[in-house]
Specification:
Blueprint: H1 11-18, H2 25-46, H3 60-68, H4 71-96, H5 100-141, E1 145-150, E2 153-157, H6 159-164, H7 184-198, E3 207-212, E4 218-230, E5 233-242, H8 244-266, E6 270-275, E7 280-283, H9 287-291, H10 295-298, H11 312-322, E8 328-335, E9 341-353, E10 356-366, H12 368-382, H13 392-409, E11 413-421, H14 423-430, H15 432-450, E12 455-460, E13 463-469, H16 473-486, E14 491-493, E15 496-498, E16 501-509, H17 516-533, E17 538-540, H18 542-545, H19 552-564, E18 568-577, E19 583-594, E20 598-600, H20 602-612, H21 615-635, E21 642-646, H22 649-653, H23 657-668, E22 675-680, H24 687-700, E23 703-709, H25 716-719, E24 726-729, H26 731-735, H27 742-754, E25 758-762, H28 767-775, E26 780-782, H29 792-800
Parallel strand pairs: 16-17, 19-21, 21-22, 22-23, 23-24, 24-25, 25-26
Antiparallel strand pairs: 1-2, 1-5, 3-4, 4-5, 6-7, 6-10, 8-9, 9-10, 11-13, 11-16, 12-13, 14-15, 18-19, 18-26, 19-20
Helix pairs in contact: 2-3, 2-4, 3-4, 4-5, 14-15, 15-16, 19-20, 21-23
């Protein structure tokens, strides 16, 4: 690309440098000789007295050569013309005589002057040429935009200018109107400023204009116009630069600043900037509702006085960590201007400028409500919401820790298990709100009796549990008597005086157990013994302690005697229609009240019975007693009550179970369809044998229930062909029904309904479980939510007469 450089010098110099005549040097030399000689000859022809000024004609070569800008021609031409003139001077001496010598001396002087002028001009021209070349290079490589226009027509543009407007060649710009490169919106301003510059009114300041490039891109140029002479005519030189990217960057910075300001100003959280000393540099308006101070009140003040004195040390430590480059999250308390405490969560972020930490941002959120909620949740996790007492989880944790301490210090420890007597009657007759009020007052009286000597907790329902550290048997007896004394006076339930009593079981560490599980279990067992004794009393677990030292043979002999002498008694647990809340029947459960050792739990004697085969006569005894009791209820007018009895695998397959059941029904006069035989899934391992027995029971009219369903390996293809009436969902699924086993329970219910089985759920302990089962179509349920197992007379008093157990 070739660019013609403008010569921005004086008028004469411009003319001299730009109006060169393109001629060969020999022609100029000839002209420089002939023109002055010719003129002198013509003048001499008319007069012999020539003026001295004629010798100025000898400067013509110099003038010609300077105009041509040819240094070599200047020197050669000047030398030759003066040689000719000198020779001519000699001729004039001989021809004119007289004054010829003077003329010749004038020739010599003028020649010397012309040579001196030539040499000086040569040096000046050389310097001018070098200056022009430097100027040309500067203009060509300058990143600045340079336009020159005359009467709005572009006569010069440097490469930077051509590139700025999106062109490639000089020809695409030259002779075009300068206005063609100005955005229409800016054209009027550009025209006015151009006219002002022409009129010498202004032009000493940069102005931003927009230009449209051929590809449609709009760029921003910052330009300055100056009036100049160009080839002897007025022109305007426009100088400037493309600031499009600068404008974009500035716009981005402005946008970022606005975004930051929006985040800072409109954030729902308080945002503050702190310097390295912990003083406030800036604060947003949300600081006021947080601490009661306006931002301007806190500028340049340290944050430390706002922090609660109890939290200040940890806050200062964490702030120091933030100044080392860490992002810190911390909860602490602020002191409000009004004096109250505000719980806050603060995130502190270091501010880095040029890799140097200069302060920190702090985002502060009021978490007072969340803190209250969290404290409430934590409280409820370890406390009973109704009574405010520690719950079973806190009790178990405390008991574990206390056992560890007692083990090291060799101190005794006692666990009390309390159950209110006939609480259900009060709850049902007076309403649950009155029952809750009674529980609250019982909790208060228990705390009064125990004082600082132990921990009182609510186990659940109407059960309470106590922990007494360092208390042996005598100390425990003293405290238990205080507790019983608290129940001698009536409870005032909204003006109604109600009497209540409690049965208490006591287990001592380490005699009655060394783990929390054993101590609670044994205290619970002792409590049931207290109820058996007659309620409103207490019992130590020591009466049961000897059973653990009995060998299998002794226990077997005692069990044989118990079966023979009918020491075994039955407890009955109601089965409830989940839809109506009515009791439809009971399940008979075996209990053993040993004359020496007291109550022996089923977990102790049932395995022995199975192992020794005593389970068969034991099962027959239970079958007869249960059928007789159910028949007795029928005779009293409590019709349609069902009785369910567990039958072991050995009893089911040894002898003739169908014959045994038939004989018991004949003996007790109970109609077969009121009897439910509960078998486990393990009975069905021998499919053909089991199928034959179950079919025979069905033909007899006895109903069959599959117990603990879901824990065995029942084949659905077998089940659908057996005359089974009930599927009993194992309590392990019900216990976690609010968590992971919901889908399993729903699947069991759906499958049972598809096979036309009645569904029974065991182990229901709360209303949520009962509601879930009812909503998904389970027919019947049993568990502690409805009732514990109890003696026949208690069942009759509390349930049989009223029929309804509890609405779901």
């Amino acid at each position: 690309m070739k660019f013609h450089l403008p010569r921005l010098t004086s008028k004469c110099t411009n003319h001299a440098l730009n109006k060169r005549i393109s001629m060969p040097s020999w022609i100029l030399i000839a002209l420089s000789i002939l023109i002055p000689l010719g003129i002198e000859f013509i003048l001499s022809s008319f007069s012999h007295n020539k003026p001295e000024s004629i010798y100025l004609l000898y400067l013509i070569p110099i003038i010609i050569f300077v105009f041509h800008y040819d240094l070599k021609a200047v020197l050669v031409g000047t030398l030759l013309v003066n040689v000719v003139h000198l020779l001519g001077g000699v001729y004039f001496i001989s021809f004119f005589g007289g004054n010829a010598v003077d003329r010749f001396s004038n020739h010599i002087g003028l020649a010397m002057v012309s040579l001196l002028v030539a040499l000086t001009s040569t040096r000046l021209i050389k310097e001018l040429k070098e200056s022009e070349e430097r100027y040309r290079s500067v203009i060509q490589i300058s990143p600045q935009i340079i336009f020159i226009h005359q009467k709005h027509q572009i006569v010069y543009a440097n490469p930077a200018a051509i590139s700025a407007v999106g062109k490639k060649e000089e020809s695409e710009v030259l002779n075009k109107s300068i206005f063609d490169f100005v955005h229409p919106l800016d054209k009027e301003i550009f025209v006015n400023r151009t006219n002002d510059i022409y009129n010498n009114q202004r032009g000493d300041e940069f102005v931003e204009y927009q230009s449209i490039r051929p590809d449609g891109e709009i760029i921003t140029l910052e330009l300055l116009g100056t009036k100049i002479n160009y080839y002897g005519k007025p022109a305007i030189m426009v100088v400037g630069k493309d600031i499009t990217e600068q404008k974009k960057t500035l716009a981005q910075l402005v946008e970022r600043e606005e975004r930051y300001r929006s985040l800072f100003s409109y954030s729902p959280d308080a945002i503050v900037t702190l310097d390295l000393d912990g003083s406030f540099v800036s604060l947003n308006p949300q600081v006021y509702p947080l601490c009661g101070y306006y931002p301007e009140e806190l500028i340049d003040r340290p944050f430390a006085p706002l922090v609660d004195i109890n939290d200040l040390d940890k806050v200062l430590i964490e702030f120091g960590k933030a100044l080392t480059g860490e992002t810190i999250n911390l909860e602490f308390k602020l002191t409000h201007k009004q004096g109250h405490k505000v719980y806050v969560h603060a995130t502190t972020i270091p501010i880095k400028v040029k890799d140097q930490i200069v302060g920190a941002y702090c985002i502060v959120k009021d978490v007072s409500e969340q803190k209250k909620m969290q404290d409430r949740i934590t409280y409820l996790a370890f406390h009973d919401d109704l009574t405010g007492l520690p719950n079973r989880y806190m009790f178990n944790e405390t008991l574990q820790n206390t056992l560890s301490q007692c083990e090291q210090s060799q101190q005794p420890l006692s666990v009390f298990f309390l159950d209110l007597d006939r609480f259900k009657r009060i709850n049902d007759n007076l309403g649950h709100d009155m029952g809750d009020l009674l529980l609250e007052q019982v909790a208060q009286r228990l705390q009064q009796a125990v004082g600082d000597e132990g921990l009182v907790a609510r186990q659940g329902g109407d059960e309470f549990i106590l922990l007494l550290k360092g208390k042996g048997r005598e100390d425990s007896e003293a405290i238990v008597k205080k507790i019983l004394d608290q129940f001698r006076n009536p409870f005032n339930l909204r003006g109604l005086e109600v009497y209540s009593s409690t049965s208490i079981g006591i287990a001592l560490y380490p005699k009655d157990g060394e783990s929390s599980i054993d101590l609670i279990k044994n205290a619970d067992t002792a409590m049931y013994q207290a109820k058996t004794i007659g309620r409103n009393t207490y019992s130590f677990y020591h009466s049961l302690y000897g059973i653990h030292n009995l060998d299998t043979l002794t226990l077997e002999n005692s069990l044989r005697k118990a079966i023979r002498e009918e020491e075994l008694i039955l407890h009955f647990q109601p089965k409830v229609d989940l839809e109506t809340g009515r009791m439809i029947g009971t399940e008979a459960l075996t209990r053993w009240n040993h004359p020496t050792f007291g109550w022996i739990p089923p977990s102790e004697f049932i395995p022995i019975a199975r192992e020794t085969g005593l389970i068969v006569p034991l099962g027959t005894l239970v079958l007869e007693k249960a059928c007789r009791q159910n028949k007795e209820w029928h005779d009293k007018g409590y019709k349609d009550l069902l009785i369910a009895i567990n039958v072991s695998v050995l009893q089911f397959k040894t002898g003739d179970i169908v014959k045994t059941i038939s004989e018991v029904l004949d003996k007790t006069k109970l109609e077969p369809h009121y009897l439910i035989i509960e078998i486990t899934e393990s009975v069905l391992q021998d499919v053909e044998e089991s199928k034959e027995i179950i079919n025979r029971l069905g033909a007899l009219g006895v109903r069959v229930s599959l117990d603990d369903f879901g824990t065995g390996y029942s084949s659905l293809s077998v089940l659908k062909h057996l005359p089974i009436h009930y599927l009993k969902i194992d309590k392990s699924f019900i216990a976690d029904i609010n968590m992971t086993d919901q889908n399993i329970v729903k699947a069991i219910i759906e499958m049972g309904m598809n096979l036309n089985f009645k569904l029974v759920a065991e182990g229901i302990e709360n209303k949520e479980q009962a509601k879930f089962l009812k909503q998904h179509g389970c027919h019947y349920g049993q568990g502690y939510y409805f009732s514990k197992p109890m003696l026949a007379e208690d069942i009759e008093k509390q349930f049989v007469i009223r029929e309804e157990v509890r609405n779901v």
